Amino acid sequence: MGKRIVVNVGVTETRVAVQDGTLLTELHVERRRHRSIVGNISKGVVTNVLPGMQAAFVDVGLPKDAFLFAGDYTANLGDYERLMLAESEEEEIEVEEVERREASVPIEDLLRKGQEVLVQVSKESLGTKGARITSFISLPGRYLVFMPQAQHIGVSRRIKDDRERERLRQVVRGLRPPAGGFIVRTVAEGKGEEEFASDIQFLLRLWEQVQARHAQTTAPALLHEEGDLIFRVVRDLFSPEVEELLVDTPTAYQKCMEYTSSLVPALAPGVKLYEGRAPVFEATGIEKEIEKALRRRVWLKSGGYIVIDHTEALVAIDVNTGKYVGKRDFEQTVLKINLEAVGEAVRQIRLRDLGGIIIIDFIDMEREEHRQQVFHALKKALAEDKARSNVLEISELGLVEMTRKRVRQDLQSLFCRPCPTCKGSGVVKSDLTVAAEIFRKVQAAAADLGGQEILIRVNPEMAQHLEAEEREGLELLQEAVQRKLTLQPVATFDREEYEIIAR
Q1: Cα dihedral 169/174/175/180 (nearest 10)
Q2: Residue 466: which of 445, 493, 446 has the closest Cα?
Q3: pLDDT tens-digit readout, 267-287
Q4: Cα 9 to chain center, whole Å?
């Protein structure tokens, strides 16, 4: 089996998985109550201007005000050429791939409180941060990205052939309207006038609708909402390389067929309805892969493993030899594990949608040629990733520093919450430490507590520990405070929780 897209539609969420053979490479989730807002266009109103941060807060109708950097706004539409399109050919350009730019004019000279602005969401709300927005509008179609404020025609760098790049430019140039620029997407390779003309017509109608709503509405107002996950999958992921688009409900299947017939009719035979008895994600092995993607440790086929840790500032990926000991040459053993770790680390980065600063700690390699081999393997693996990344050379300590574009919540943030016991630290106090803490608190509080007895309410397992392992300590404490001490197990208490009561 080659590349396959599997769609699972549940009551509260839709999940889309991309498989390369049996390996899960991408996972997209859209929940009914938390639909993605990236790509949405709004008429917003400035609520606050922050000269010290060269940014502004804008009310676009979301629970939190959105964040607009000075470099992401211009009143002069001609600046679009200079600011955005200078970097347009680096990657497949979509709204979420636009990086923060330096502003040529201070924010206080661009915006004022109460001013209305036309903006687009470029990054989801993450944690306590509001959504990030930009005034540089991008409307993605199947083959083209339309930029109404530009005149430039760019081609994705993923299309390598220079003659093909020039041909695509000429075709789009011949069809382009008087106003507006375009970026030719990777899936457009080999396409011609018919496909581009249809895309351009669709995108122009969409922009006209946005403009009409902008003229008729009062801020804050939503002017354009990006399509649902199934639409985006058909538009952005379904390509001739995909052998099968498998959908598990008749309603979603019908929707996929409608989108496919409209956008890419030639691929319609690849859309299949799953009719098996077992849930589609279980039948295709995806459910197990998702469970693995939420674990800290990921095993490699050789017996080595990688460990993925999230911190406030960065994501750390550590490579370990594990059970693999090699045969003769230790350096070859290390090289083999590091090369295997490259593929798995990049797969996990894509699958978990890790972003920001990422540090990969490879096993130390003595030979420079081995370090270069691993580095080039990493660059090659990342070339398949649609998210923009920047990778630095491997240091002598075996560390790779890289950044990856963060747009949405990573998988862990989406599926998990901090442990209520350890508060997200990943560790809890030992039984000995908690016991000593209880003893100190009892001693300190005894003088202020009335009654003849002190009741110590604790977690049942901690009560068992105190009675079995700390019996002598309890007797000494009882003598010290001259009160009877009684333990009371409380099932609802966590391991570190306790209460001291006089009675």
Answers
A1: 70
A2: 493
A3: 999 999 999 999 999 999 999
A4: 20
Whether the CB-CB separation of 76 and 13 falls below 8 Å is answered with no
Residues 6+ apart with CB under 8 A from 154: 85, 88, 89, 93, 181, 182, 183, 184
Residue 23 CA, distance from chain mean position: 19
Q: Compute CA distances 315 → 302, 311, 312, 358, 401, whole Å.
A: 24, 6, 8, 5, 10
CATH code at 88? 2.40.50.140
Whether pLDDT at 213 is above 50: yes
| Statement to judge: residues 392 and 243 lie in one domain | no
Residue 385 in tokens: 């990733």
CATH code at position 268: 3.30.420.60
Angstrom distances, CA of residue 105 to CA of 72, 159, 368: 11, 35, 46
Question: Shortest CA distance to 127 belongs to which of 412, 500, 466, 427?
Answer: 412
Statement to judge: residues 196 and 47 lie in one domain: yes
221 pairs with which residues across the strands?
43
User: Is the domain of 76 the same as that of 216?
Assistant: yes
* Same structural domain, 158 and 271: no
Angle at alpha carbon of residue 325, lines to 352 and 302, rounded to 5°: 35
Q: Is 410 a member of any domain? A: yes
Of 208, 224, 240, which closes a domain? 224
Whether 200 and 254 share a structural domain? no
Do 324 and 370 reside in the same domain of the chain? yes
> For 58, what's the count of Cα atoms within 13 Å in the CB-facing half-sphere?
33
Q: Give the integer Cα–Cα distance in Å for 233 and 37.
A: 15
206 shares a domain with 132: yes
Residues 307/295, Cβ–Cβ less than 8 Å: no
Q: Which residue has the tokens 């923009």?
A: 388
Rounded to whole angstroms, the Cα distance separating 282 from 292 reads 14
Q: Which of 37-51, 153-167, 305-319, 324-338 has the least mean pLDDT? A: 324-338
Domain around 256? 3-34+231-287
The structural domain count of the chain equals: 4
* Domain containing residue 456: CATH number: 3.40.1260.20
Whether the CA torsion 203, 204, 205, 208 is positive or negative: it is: positive
In a shared domain, residues 356 and 435: no
What span, in angstroms and rounded, lies between the C-alpha atoms of 254 and 260?
A: 10
DSSP category for residue 12? S
Instruction: Verify cis geometry, omega within 30 degrees of 0, for the bond prior to 220.
Output: yes
The rounded distance, in Å, linking the Cα atoms of 425 and 364 is 28
pLDDT tens string 82-122: 444 444 433 334 333 334 455 567 888 888 999 999 999 98
Taking Cα atoms as reference points, which of 215, 182, 216 lies closest to residue 199?
A: 182
Cα distance between residue 269 and residue 267, in whole Å? 6
